[in-house]
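Problem: given the chain below (431 residues), write out its structure.
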Amino acid sequence: MLPDRRLFLRRSLAAGAVLAAPAVLRSSSKRTCRTALIGSGWWGMNIARMALASGRCDLVALCDVDGSILEAAVEDINTLSGRKPHSYRDFRELLLREKPQIVIVATPDHWHALITIAALQSGAHVYVEKPVGHTIKEGRAMVRAARETGRKVQVGTHRRGSPHNISAMEFLRKGGAGDIGMVRAFVHSSGGHGRITPDTPPPDNLDWDMWCGPAPLRPYNRRIHPRGFRSFLDYANGRLGDWGIHWMDHILWWSEEKYPRRIYSSGGRFILEDNTDAPDTQIVTFTFESFTAVWEHRTYAGNASEKHRIGCYFYGTEGILHIGWHDGWTFYDRESGEPLHHEEPKLHEPDAQNIPELWADFLDAIESNRRPTCDIEIGHLSTNMSLLGMLSHKIGRSIEWDGEAERVVNDDEANALLRRNYRPPWIYPGS
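Solution.
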């Protein structure tokens, strides 16, 4: 049996190599798109640089509520392109004045829905970072806006453009690991108890009220901004909403099922003693029709004693496949536990990403009038898995999910958390 499996590996990987080739632009003579970036911090600038590198985008405007971040980003784009983009502190003014053809939304999670919908309604195509929203009904409103306007929305789950992730998916779909009964997705990091960071007045060049936007207005704390918001549940959904969305997307990418039927989260804050309120330990079980998936994370005790500290294990009748990040993917034999195949990743710097492949696909989708690889519906369903895990965490019990209706079965308390009240004057989409 083993030689046959090795022959299968060679054939399936050869076929997968074609799929793994990065998407390329059809012609350098294609028209250049007026592009704007809303949320010009660390990751937003990674996307903007790749947009410039495509040769198909002019960065005409940047927007950020933090003046220091905005100023640095404008200078960076000016240096790279020789053209200084216009700067804005309010996305609404940018959309009205600049009328961009493409908008990159790279704000904190709680702003994704409103800005994406406004950009679509202004006529722009949108590249929005994951997760698509903070609550499930926001995501559905984004899908609806994309379909009503006919604009393209690419979600930044850039592993869908990653060569080693693509070939791993092809391997699984061809049966390389056999029948899969369980998937385990995880992120384990190192860390300690942390400490309390006192609130302070916001910096003079930060519009803190606008930063909070539709979310609760709480005192400024430098643990929240810049970059710390993911651990505060008013603005994001913790490790599961941040890292987990990538691996939840892998599960749905591989599976023909669109959503789990039952979800149960356990865990809590057992170690952390700081200002954050997201769980430092979490295990979520997702029951599908034909398999079970498990998410787990901890913010401590991650070290080299674990062979892999991040990724997905697919457990099959022929062996185990691990898909990771810096460590590529590896298939381990059922009988010996030895690796039968390993593929190294092909990542771009900075920050080991595959944004160029996803951006090229986005431009081609616009040009070809097709849905992009990470269409908003795909991003919505993958985000839902993370949000459902967090919903179970928040109410402290398991839930049964009707994925077609996008409602929790017979649970009014849980259904109330599918949306939330926005802080005036902001209005929840569809309200």
